[in-house]
Amino acid sequence: MIELSGVHKSFGANHVLRGVSLTVPQGESMVIIGGSGTGKSVLLKCVLGLVVPDGGTIKLDGEDVSHAEREAFLARFGMLFQGGALFDSLKVWENVAFRLMRGATKRPKDEARAIAIEKLRRVGLGPQVADHFPAELSGGMQKRVGLARAIAADPEIIFFDEPTTGLDPIMSGVINDLIREIVVEMGATAMTITHDMRSVRAIADRVAMLHEGGIRWSGTVAEMDTTQDPYVTQFVNGLATGPINPVR
Amino acid sequence: MILVAPLRAIGQTALQILALLGRIVLFAGDVLAAMVRPPFYPREFGHQLLQIGWYSLPVVGLTALFTGGALALQIYSGGARFNAEAVVPSIVAIGMVRELGPVLGGLMVAARVASSIAAEIGTMKVTEQIDALVTLSTDPTRYLVVPRVLAATLAVPVLVGVGDAIGIMGGWMVGVSRLGFNSAGYLANTLDIIEFWDVGSGLVKGAAFGFIVALMGCLHGLNSGRGAQGVGRATKSAVVAASVMILAANYLLTEVFFSA
């Protein structure tokens, strides 16, 4: 279970997170929605320790993450980055097997490659892709490789940062379905940030809306569709008029 | 107020320079500490040795060749003013191994390597590859910085050594073909005049310059701003900082090695 309590983060005069409190129970898929620049990515990076919060606490299974032993802590996570963040200088299979070839989970090269090919197959990519370099793949394929890398070491918790950004509608649907299947299959806890409402409906057990540095609303997908909260309805329906100022 | 403004500008610049120096020292400390603590990445180190050392050989060699040749012409025409044309082999040799080999080699490596390191790591930063490394339990300092700094520190002295030899050869070629020196006499004169520490000091300088080049490339790459402009600025800053620091370090090391 991930618990965030009163998390604050500023970059200079820009007070991005102003007391975010949120709980993601184990095995649940939480999707965080909100406009661009509302601090969704910063929130994920705070949990992972990539950004150090200015205040508040973040706990994983009751333990404060700032006191956790880094390698063991990070070994529990997988993350799909917005642009894939694949390592250009490594082949596709080496990207997928990166964690498997280093550190505490280190395995022989052949075994790591076999696992990488199996994970690639799981995201719908054939073994012929394994020896390509990331730059030789399309955006959708890179996203799939990023997904395969995120699940390579069977993490307990998976983060998805804008998983469908930059993809065509069909590929977005494919990635959404894959994410849902994988999260259910692995029983993983998932945290996804997106502003794509199709992703929300495909992936989420629960939805939380981040607005002006705090959690404005949270509930199930069904509740999202019936809520009277004007901020949520404006966002969900993509309305130009409403309490959220479109010019930020 | 009008009087205070220039003072404030000077003060701000001085503080910025001190802050930058502080960051460089802290970063260098982190890198040195990471060098002696596992995990180590020998494959990355080997790859960097090839990139930084082997692939810099043509540019360093050509620079040394032309510099040695030009130096021979200059010393000959300068020496002719007081009938000292015969000193060409000695001054070319000492000038190359003590000063021009390491400094010009270092500057050429700065141009070639600091820029490429800063651009590569800067691009990794803006495309979130550095964040991805961290989430995959890999320390970017150990995985990216240490192999580059170690490879440059070891490779640049070798480049300087090869550059010294090629520079002396450039002087010899010009001396024999254009200035009328006897080939065997030129080489004998060169070997007679060079002492161990002339070459050794240049190689030590080369190691220091290699360390500076890779350190500046990595530091500016890791602190790159967003987008193409951010990476461009990081690359430019890395080359400028590496070049200025090489020249400053060259003076300091020369002072330490050769001041009476």
Describe the structure.
The complex is a heterodimer of chains A (248) and B (260). Chain A contains nine helices and ten strands. Chain A has a six-stranded mixed β-sheet with strand order 6-7-8-3-9-10, with helices on both faces. Chain A has a four-stranded antiparallel β-sheet with strand order 2-1-4-5, with helices on one face. Helices cover 34% and strands 25% of the residues of chain A. In chain A, helix 4 (109-122) packs across helix 5 (139-151), helix 5 runs parallel beside helix 6 (169-186) and helix 6 (169-186) packs parallel to helix 7 (197-203). With 260 residues, chain B is mainly α. Chain B has one domain (4-258). Chain B has helices at residues 4-35, 42-53, 57-79, 88-126, 129-135, 140-177, 183-193, 196-222, 227-258. Chain B starts with a helix and ends with a helix. At the A-B interface, helix 2 and strand 6 of A face helix 5 of B.
Secondary-structure blueprint of this entry?
The complex is a heterodimer of chains A (248) and B (260).
Chain A: E1 2-11, E2 14-24, E3 29-33, H1 40-48, E4 55-60, E5 63-64, H2 70-74, E6 77-80, H3 92-96, H4 109-122, H5 139-151, E7 157-161, H6 169-186, E8 189-194, H7 197-203, E9 206-211, E10 214-220, H8 221-226, H9 230-237
Parallel strand pairs in A: 3-8, 3-9, 6-7, 7-8
Antiparallel strand pairs in A: 1-2, 1-4, 4-5, 9-10
Chain B: H1 4-35, H2 42-53, H3 57-79, H4 88-126, H5 129-135, H6 140-177, H7 183-193, H8 196-222, H9 227-258
Helix pairs in contact in B: 1-6, 2-6, 3-4, 3-6, 4-6, 4-7, 4-8, 4-9, 6-7, 6-8, 8-9
Keywords:
heterodimer; A: 248 residues; alpha/beta; Rossmann fold; 6-stranded mixed beta sheet; 4-stranded antiparallel beta sheet; 9 helices; globular; B: 260 residues; mainly alpha
